[in-house]
Task: inverse folding
């Protein structure tokens, strides 16, 4: 093909040059697509940034170190101390990377009844007790949902990997549970957030993670969930008791009777001497202390909320404490059905006279 330049004929691009340009463009497009594919769908992450189906992280008090278990190794081990819980290349930072980046095909909600102070706020916001004592982050892309439940006030504190963990989160023991789910579970999680009346303090897009139904499902209820890796979970939404009656308002009564199991329970300010028997004959016993690979600590410095069956393959992370003021509030829990996880958490419970069967004479309900 020819064209004229300054009155002279010149040869345009040849067939060979067009082919070379085409090949170069194909390489550029292929690299771009491969890069997009390598990034992949969102997922819970380990401290190396690798995808895991789920994890549980239990931080020790007065430190940023923790014990950890996940879908690839269900032993409860001490973490690599080079990457504490607040590390910008650690488990939580890797998992929350989509939260920091806020990509176009991504949405999230962050909920916490003890939210961090906003940039324009002079004082921290006081949240009504009509909201659940619930804390978590739910992130969603076109393929997966990542649900991170936890017990830490003011979390996430910031929007970047170097400021997301609050300084106030160091003092007490805290727990985190993360599960990777397929995106079709988004409506179920949205319904759970509505049932616990989660206080949402930050959101991005927030379309599929919002329950737009007009009616609130009758509490209490529970429903099974299957992770992206086919691990069985069950989530619970508890009843509200205006009379502060534990038979109705204690989250762990509902869990024990549903799972048909006695429970060992860790919550804030729980009294180890206060045992309780449900109407179905399930014994609830508060944990006095734990002994983990990262150290030992008592319930008085532990802000986490979790429970484990005394004999069945269930371990749960909840949002409610076992005290009357919380019986009148909504709340819930996510439980994993895993023998290895249940065994691991039973093993860290420090046995004393109140924990050894038979239990001390309980209060009945």
Result:
């Amino acid at each position: 093909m020819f064209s004229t330049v300054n009155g002279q004929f010149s040869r345009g691009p040849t067939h060979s040059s067009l082919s070379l340009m085409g090949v170069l463009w194909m390489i550029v497009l292929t690299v771009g697509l491969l890069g997009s594919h390598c990034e992949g769908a969102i997922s819970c992450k380990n401290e190396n940034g690798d995808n895991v189906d789920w994890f549980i992280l239990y931080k020790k008090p007065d430190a940023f170190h923790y014990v950890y278990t996940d879908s690839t190794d269900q032993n409860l081990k001490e973490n690599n101390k080079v990457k504490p819980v607040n590390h910008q290349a650690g488990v939580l930072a890797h998992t929350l990377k989509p939260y920091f980046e806020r990509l176009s095909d991504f949405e999230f909600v962050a909920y916490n009844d003890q939210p961090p102070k906003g940039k324009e706020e002079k004082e921290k916001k006081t949240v009504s007790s009509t909201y659940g004592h619930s804390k978590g982050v739910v992130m969603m892309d076109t393929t997966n949902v990542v649900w991170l439940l936890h017990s830490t006030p003011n979390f996430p504190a910031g929007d970047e990997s170097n400021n997301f963990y609050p300084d106030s989160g160091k003092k007490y023991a805290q727990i985190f549970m993360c599960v990777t789910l397929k995106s079709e579970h988004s409506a179920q999680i949205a319904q759970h957030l509505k049932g616990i009346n989660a206080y949402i303090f930050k959101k991005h897009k927030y379309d599929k993670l919002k329950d737009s139904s007009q009616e609130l499902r009758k509490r209490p209820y529970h429903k099974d969930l299957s992770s992206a890796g086919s691990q069985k979970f069950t989530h619970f939404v508890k009843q509200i008791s205006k009379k502060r009656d534990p038979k109705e308002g204690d989250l762990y009564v509902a869990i024990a009777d549903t799972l048909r199991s006695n429970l060992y329970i860790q919550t804030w300010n729980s009294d180890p001497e206060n045992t309780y028997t449900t109407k179905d004959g399930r014994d609830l016993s508060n944990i006095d202390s734990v002994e983990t690979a990262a150290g030992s600590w008592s319930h008085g410095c532990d802000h986490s909320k979790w429970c484990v069956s005394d004999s069945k393959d269930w371990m749960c992370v909840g949002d409610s404490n076992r005290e009357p003021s919380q019986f009148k509030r909504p709340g819930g829990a996510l439980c994993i059905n895993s023998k290895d996880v249940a065994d691991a958490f039973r093993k860290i419970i420090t046995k004393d006279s109140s924990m050894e069967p038979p239990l001390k004479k309980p209060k009945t309900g």
Notes: Confidence is low (pLDDT under 50) at residues 1-13, 23-38, 357-365. Residues 33 and 306 are 42 Å apart (CA to CA).
